[in-house]
Specification:
334 residues, alpha+beta, TATA-Binding Protein, Endonuclease III, domain 1, five-stranded antiparallel β-sheet, two-stranded antiparallel sheet, 9 strands, 37% helix
Length: 334
């Protein structure tokens, strides 16, 4: 990417959409807002919120030994940190920062209240058995597009480890410390605001292992941040169409985004290197299935195809690898 995309670096970093804060200086601690909610269904926090985690060292997500799940998000009201824990059938939540009330208001959607598993009818023994073993699986709906869209763009055409590393480095360097006074969130960060993404110098993208094409796609997306975020309020198919208006965003990236931001139960990830073979192996003992065959096999689950693929992945029935792993690249050396 040309350096015209960003000015020369300084000793400060633009955070929070325009506030200049010395690098590494945390926001002041704020009092927590709390909410207790009793979900009217079985809930497994790990299964429901797990798809939001981008690797074990994701700076926006933490799972602590006491069973709590922590998320740092950039909401329409500003940065916020959310802690969620289950206690005797209830969910106890705390939130900090300007985005605290926004996060608590949308807690039920985050934990699958708008999801409807009763619409799903297993058609294969493997899928039925997995659904029976995983009654607490709900499809999350974050209502936030960019926090899923950007890491999904980073995952295009590279290994998962490379994408997770890029997300971790960029969020820590150009995001801001997560609000809150507790040790569990002390190492967490909120992802950069759209303006902060747009000011990342080209060499910093390269140091994070991000090539010019993916970086340019992210810059195009954040330049239209409000239009992107509107997609969270749209029907999934319309939301995908909205996202795919951005050059560099295709069906794979848009599906990965609406699965999380919109809680879309039918958004199938097409164009994936491994998923067709996994679905083909699980449903028809065909490890060489392509996207066309995968969609044919998933036809009985029309309307719930994303849920079906989640259950297939959770079943553990995956074909043994017989091709070498994707080769890692070193953009920083280019």
């Amino acid at each position: 990417m040309s350096s015209r995309f960003a000015p020369r670096p300084t000793r400060t970093t633009v955070r929070g959409g325009g506030t200049v804060v010395p690098r590494g200086v945390p926001r002041p601690a704020t009092a927590a807002l709390t909410r207790v909610w009793r979900p009217p269904y079985a809930l497994d926090l790990g299964l429901t919120l797990g798809p939001l985690r981008r690797g074990p060292a994701d700076p926006t997500f933490r799972a602590t030994p006491d069973g709590s799940v922590w998320r740092a998000s950039r909401t329409p009201q500003g940065p916020g940190t959310l802690r969620v824990a289950q206690r005797s059938g209830t969910v106890e939540a705390e939130a900090w920062g300007p985005g605290a009330s926004w996060l608590l208001d949308r807690l039920p959607d985050l934990l699958g209240e708008s999801d409807d598993p009763s619409a799903f009818e297993p058609r294969h023994r493997l899928v039925a058995a997995t659904a029976h073993r995983r009654p607490g699986l709900r499809l999350t709906r974050t209502g936030l597009v960019l926090e899923t869209l950007i890491p999904s763009i980073l995952e295009q055409k590279v290994t998962t480890d490379e994408a997770y590393r890029a997300w971790r480095l960029l969020v820590r360097a150009f995001g801001e410390p997560a609000p809150g006074p507790t040790p569990a969130q002390a190492r967490m960060h909120v992802m950069p605001a759209p303006r902060a993404w747009s000011l990342i110098p080209s060499w910093e993208w390269h140091k994070a292992g991000v090539d010019d094409k993916r970086a340019a796609t992210i810059l195009r997306a954040v330049a239209r941040a409000s239009r992107m975020e509107e997609a969270a309020t749209m029907e999934p198919a319309a939301a995908q169409a909205r996202l795919e208006l951005i050059p560099g965003i295709g069906p794979w990236t848009s599906a990965e985004t609406v699965q999380r931001a919109n809680g879309a139960p039918d958004a199938v990830t097409v164009g994936d290197l491994h998923l067709p073979g996994i679905v083909g192996h699980a449903l028809a003992d065909d490890r060489d299935a392509d996207d066309t065959e995968m969609l044919r096999l998933l036809t009985p689950y029309e309307g719930q195809r994303h849920r079906a693929t989640r259950l297939i992945l959770l079943s553990g029935r995956t074909p043994p690898r017989r091709t070498p792993k994707m080769r890692k690249t070193n953009i920083a050396s280019w």
